[in-house]
Amino acid sequence: MLGPALMAAKGQGAPEVDRAYTRARELCQQVGETPELFPVLWGLWRFYLVQAEIRAAWALAEQCLSLA
User: Fold this and answer.
1) Whole-angstrom Cα distance, residue 21 to residue 39?
2) Taking 80 as the threshold, does the pLDDT of residue 6 lie above it?
3) Could you list the residue range(s) of the whole structural domain that residue 16 is in?
4) DSSP class of residue 7?
5) Distance CA 65, CA 6 (A)
6) d(CA 20, CA 1)
7) What is the pTM of this model?
8) DSSP of 42-66, one letter per residue?
9) What is the DSSP letter of 18?
10) What does the alpha-carbon distance between residue 6 and residue 28 come to, in Å, rounded to a whole number?
11) CA distance 2 to 10
């Protein structure tokens, strides 16, 4: 829930957005594949896309596709 709020308040490319989604991803990995993993990966994808880090965004898009 923090990721979308930070995107709205600070912008999609804000460092806080990266930190929030990265931490959420770590927590999802500790728990295992949870329903929350897809929106976390999607949020990270948006962050990396805005940062023009295309390779990282591509890898996240592939992970989203495999989960879908």
Assistant:
1) 9
2) yes
3) 2-67
4) H
5) 25
6) 9
7) 0.86
8) HHHHHHHHHTT-HHHHHHHHHHHHH
9) H
10) 19
11) 12
Joined together, the tokens standing for residue 13 give: 């490319």
- Torsion sign across C-alpha atoms 2, 23, 15, 52: negative
User: Could you tell me if 52 and 12 are in contact, meaning their C-beta atoms sit under 8 angstroms apart?
Assistant: no
Task: Give tens-digit pLDDT for 12-59.
Answer: 999 999 999 999 999 998 988 788 899 999 999 999 999 999 999 999
- pLDDT band of residue 1 (cuts 50, 70, 90) is confident
39 φ, ψ (degrees, to nearest 5)? -65, -30
Q: What are phi and psi of 35, to 5 degrees?
A: -60, -20
Query: Count of domains in the chain?
Result: 1
Angle at 19 between CA 61 and CA 45, to 5 degrees: 15
